[in-house]
Structures are given as C-alpha cells and as structure tokens.
Design goal:
The protein has 448 residues and is mainly alpha-helical. The chain has 20 helices and five strands. The chain folds into two domains: 342 residues, no CATH class; 95 residues. It has a five-stranded mixed β-sheet with strand order 2-1-3-5-4, covered by helices on one side. The radius of gyration is 24 Å and the shape is globular.
C-alpha cells in the first residue's frame, strides 16, 4: 500500500461511505409500502401501544418506535422519521473501524473490511428508509465490541452490562449476538457471566411480558406466511437458495448475489472449525442465525441479516486478505458499483407516492373523493386523517373483476383512484375515465 493509502485510505473510505448515506437520505424519495405502514403505526398508536404489537403486518423494536414518535411531535416529515436510521448508519462506520482494528492488526484486512462495510448496498439503502435495520446494524457492532472486550480482554465494566441489558429494546436481532456469546462467556470468562447477564435476564423478562409476547401473538402467523421464501434452510436439497439469500446482502442481481454468498459463506463455516479463537468468535452469531432459520423462526433476507454484515466482511477480508485474490477483488468491485448505482438510482423502492398524492391534492374539488387500493399504506400515510379517503376493503389491485365490483358499489360522484401500477381493462361502461396521470404510481380521475 502506498504512503498516501496508508495515511489517508481509511479516512477516505469512511468519508465516502458517509457521503453516500447522506446523498441517499437527502434524495428524499417517497415512502414505500413498509415504511409507510410502519409510520402509520407510529402515528396511530399511543406510546404504550407501540409496545403491544403493530398493525399492517409490521414488527419493530419498541424503543425505535418511541424515539421516532418523539421526533415527530411537532414535525411530521419523511426526513424526520428517517433521521434515526441515518444517524445510526453513519455512526456504525467509525464504530466498525474500531471493531475491526481490535480484531486484526493487518492493515489490508482492516482497510478491505472497512471498504466492504462502508460501500454495502443494503447498509446504504436502509440509512435512508424509515425501518429499524440501520439501528440494528449499529447495535450489532456495539455489542461485538463489548463482547470482544469481555471475552478476549477480560475487561468488565458495569456500563457493558447495562448496554447488553437494554439492547433488545432497540434491536430485536441483538438477541442473536447476546445469545451466541453466553456459552463462550461461561468458558472464557466465567467470573463475568453473572455480572454481565443477570441485568440482561431481568430486562429480557420485562421486555417479553411488556412487548415481545404481544408481537408474537399479533404478527407471527402473518409474518410466517409472508416470509416463506426466507426460510431457505428447511430444504437442504436447494443449497444455492441458501447462498443466494445471504448473497443478496451485497447485490440484487442473482448471479452476483450467488457469487458474493459463496465467497462469504464458505470462510464463515471454516471459521467455526478454526483453531483461531477470534474466527470462531466471528462465526457463532452466523451459526445461530442458521439454526433459528432452520426452525422457521427467523427468515433470511438481506435487510433481516444486515446485523451480520460486520461479521461477514471481516471474515471475507480475513480469509482473502491479499489484493491479488480474484474473489476478494470481485466482491469489492461488486459492492462499490452496486452501492453507487442504487444510491443514484433507487428504483427498487421508488413508487412516487408523495408525488401522486400531491397531484390529487392540487386538482381535487369539494365533494370529490380519493380511492385507495391494496397498496394503500404508501398513499394513506400522506393522506392521514383526511376525511375524503375511501379504502377498498381487503384491497383489489391484483383482481380486476373484484375491483370493478367494488368500484361499482361506490355512490355516484367523481373520484381519484391512486394505484401502484396502471391497470388494464379496470373500468366497466358504468365508469367514465376523465383523466390519468402516470408516474411510478398511477392516478385515475373518474366519474361514476
């Protein structure tokens, strides 16, 4: 590595990673379905209600929701709700650099790991979306630092115990990190186990009775059906599906995802049988995630395993640390190009819901109504508490005949119908289309 790279390489990587996250945030794209559904829960529930299970098939740690609700008391804006993910995602980068610097003294391993972390597509995307995954990533890195100090440096401090105890309130995935190292602590640092875990067990019992049991009873069946494709380990006859699911952490393209998944999963499993204790340390949370997914209790999907990113990138760099390694170079290039592309062109999530609602609000007249279909969350968020909105019960977007029947049941009048896609042959002869606006969403102005 040249002198400039040695002195400024890490700084340039971290700064560039932060710039990408800020760019994604300030683009200010419309909320997509899940963001809007989660935001509606924050708007519609009381503070205590945020602990007792959410509507619209949503799950999120309660303190993330509480902090978000506090932020929007006097300022309900997309930027405000996305502020916690942004700050968490930015703070995670230097924190990760601290973590990898503790694990390795190899400058190339540190640089490559920081590069892969800073330019990860999924980490950048969820910095600019109102979802909890960016906060979960930050919490994961923080816990990894704490457990490294407890296990390898045998350094106990009471605030470590406190942070471990409250972590699940802010990050549900933190339970994988905390659970993974319980047995390790028993073996490596038994003297600190009680001091470390008693506050956690007390906190977790409170968390379970105040929140987690409601979440499970409220959303488990719906989430189980929704995430069927995420349980990739129930059928080992399809190993490529497993690799693909993990690889999607780095790319939406299936071939690139398969390649990245193979490059990181093979060394991840090797790490578990390694005689190097630090490598076993890195592999344990990944193994626990595999096991829980095999029991169909936790699906594997890019955003849901974002908390494992710090482990994967260190493992990739540790086992392929020479730059002449083609696999490592390829993963770095894929990460860089993909992160730049989706930051500049985030079409995967873009629906122009805000713009569609703005068109309606600019044209609608007294007495006219707004009709929403099965994708209504992304639009209703921008129309919240308006009394001229009609939501077609149970939705009808995919079913044209059913949709026509529901529209024909509407009283006579003029309506603005906002849909995610432009439907074909939607209206019968009883309905007259007066105008149509095609964005990433579709607005149809009709008279019945």
């Amino acid at each position: 590595m040249n002198p400039f790279g040695k002195k400024y390489g890490i700084t340039v990587i971290i700064v560039f990673g932060i710039i990408l996250r800020l760019f994604a945030y300030f683009r200010g794209i419309s909320f997509w379905g899940d963001e809007a559904a989660l935001a509606l829960n924050v708007l519609e529930h009381s503070y205590s209600g945020l602990f007792k299970g959410l509507d619209y098939l949503q799950v999120a740690p309660p303190m993330f929701l509480v902090m978000s609700k506090i932020l929007i008391i006097d300022n309900l804006r997309d930027f405000t709700l996305r502020l916690i993910p942004l700050v968490s995602g930015i703070a995670a980068i230097p924190l990760f650099y601290k973590f990898v610097s503790m694990l390795s003294k190899n400058r190339v391993v540190i640089t490559v790991s920081t590069f892969l972390f800073s330019f990860n597509m999924t980490a950048i995307l969820y910095c600019a979306q109102f979802k909890q995954y960016s906060l979960e990533l930050f919490t994961s890195v923080l816990l990894l630092i704490i457990f490294y100090k407890l296990i390898f440096e045998k350094e106990f401090k009471w605030h470590y115990s406190l942070l471990i105890a409250i972590a699940p309130w802010f990050s549900l995935s933190s339970l994988f990190i905390i659970g993974s190292y319980f047995l390790v602590m028993l073996i490596k640092n038994p003297g600190a186990v009680l001091k470390t875990y008693i506050p956690f067990f007390i906190s977790f019992l409170l968390f379970y009775f105040l929140s987690l049991r409601y979440v499970s009873s409220c959303n488990y069946d719906g989430m189980y059906n929704w995430w069927q494709n995420g349980y990739g380990f129930a059928d080992l006859r399809h190993p490529l599906r497993i690799v693909l699911r993990f690889g999607e952490l780095f790319s939406f393209d299936k071939l690139k995802a398969l390649f990245c998944g193979a490059v990181m999963l093979v060394p991840a499993f090797i790490s578990l049988i390694s005689n190097k204790k630090q490598r076993v340390f890195l592999g344990l949370p990944i193994l626990l995630t595999f096991a829980v997914s095999a029991l169909r209790l936790y699906p594997i999907e890019a955003r849901l395993i974002l908390f494992l990113l710090p482990l994967f990138v260190v493992i990739i760099a540790e086992y392929n640390w020479k730059f002449k390694n083609v696999c490592l170079m390829s993963v770095c290039i894929i990460s860089f190009i993909t992160s730049i592309f989706y930051t500049i062109n985030p079409y995967k999530f873009y629906t122009s819901a805000r713009e569609a609602v703005q068109i309606v609000e600019n044209h609608i007249k007294d007495g006219e109504k707004i009709v929403l279909d099965s994708s209504y969350h992304r639009y209703y968020y921008y129309l919240h508490q308006k009394d001229n909105v009609i939501i077609l019960k149970d939705g009808c977007e995919p079913y044209l005949e059913e949709c026509n029947n529901k529209i024909e049941e509407l009283p006579a009048g003029r309506y603005y119908f906002i849909l995610k896609e432009d439907p074909k042959n939607l209206f019968t002869s009883k309905v007259k289309v007066l105008d149509k606006y095609n964005l990433h969403s579709t607005v149809i102005y009709f008279e019945k």
